[in-house]
Write a structure and sequence with these properties.
The chain is mainly β. It has a single domain (about 10-260), classed as Porin. Helices cover about 10% and strands about 60% of the residues. The protein contains two helices and twelve strands. An eleven-stranded mixed beta barrel has the order 1-2-3-4-5-6-7-9-10-11-12. Strand 6 (about 145-160) and strand 7 form a beta hairpin.
């Protein structure tokens, strides 16, 4: 019997590299081409995570957006729960939480939650939103220690005083890679997302994002990214935003999670 290890197809490896390169170019090119004349915003955010078990996690997100020119602000409160399962078959090291532990990455995750939003300073006169959403994440490690994540999200939205709900379908493709440097861990990532809105019956929004998360301890992490958004049905066609996020982690004592469950970049909203 031939016991020689079989290597992956060179053509397949080239295709994977081309996929990652194409994703990065797609994510960065729109902002370079359309950034002139766009609205600029600042998006500070605090995310709190509580791990209940190796598979279950709940979280609370509090994002705020501010137009840097008009100082118009919107705030959101997001409650959600995650369940992860399955194995990819490829091993990954822990993110400095336990440098000697290696775990298989969960291949699938489902998330569902609720979003409440309103404009700030005017008691929600300009903007209010209530949304119930569900997500499916498929995570695939590839050569070069890269992680490719596909996310499909469905939103059921009530905007303003409208009693009728609209739906929005969102597909996001993301590439990320963990880099250890001394006692810090960096996870640079890039993604591109497409929005289909039932109100317009078309793909009306494309969002591209690039950034990194930084972690030194298991309790806190910082994340920063630049976001470009092009919307054909909004009064703001082109938008550039700087997003700064503080992540705070908690877990129950019995919730000994797989190392990879905490590792890699957290899904961006």
């Amino acid at each position: 019997m031939d016991t020689t290890p079989r290597r992956g197809s060179p053509h397949g490896a080239r295709c994977l590299r081309c996929l990652c390169l194409a994703l990065l170019l797609v994510a960065l090119a729109p902002g370079l081409a359309w950034s002139d004349g766009s609205v600029e915003e600042f998006w500070p955010e605090v995310d709190v995570w509580l791990r209940l078990s190796p598979a279950w996690r709940v979280s609370l997100f509090v994002p705020i957006s501010e137009n840097l020119e008009t100082h118009y602000r919107e705030g959101n409160l997001i409650l959600q729960a995650d369940y992860a399962w399955g194995r990819t078959g490829r091993l990954r090291a822990a993110r400095l939480i336990d440098e000697n532990r290696v775990e298989a990455l969960n291949a699938w995750m489902v998330r569902w939650g609720y979003l409440g939003g309103r404009s700030l300073g005017d008691e929600g006169a300009q903007y209010t939103e209530r949304t119930i959403f569900g997500e499916l994440h498929a995570r695939t490690p590839i050569k070069g220690d890269l992680l490719v994540t596909q996310r499909l999200r469905v939103d059921l939205r009530w905007l303003g005083d409208d009693a009728d709900a609209s739906s929005r379908w969102r597909y996001r493709l993301q590439v990320e890679k963990e880099i250890a440097a001394r006692r810090f861990s960096f996870v640079p990532y890039a993604n591109v997302e497409f929005y289909y809105d039932s109100r317009y019956e078309t793909v009306n929004r494309i969002r591209a994002m690039g950034g990194t998360s930084v972690v030194r301890s298991k309790r806190f992490a910082l994340e920063a990214n630049w976001t470009y958004q092009h919307d054909t049905r909004s009064s703001v066609t082109n938008l550039d935003a700087l997003n700064l996020i503080l992540h705070v982690f908690f877990e129950k004592r019995h919730a000994e999670e797989p190392a990879s469950a905490r590792g890699m970049a957290w899904p961006a909203d």
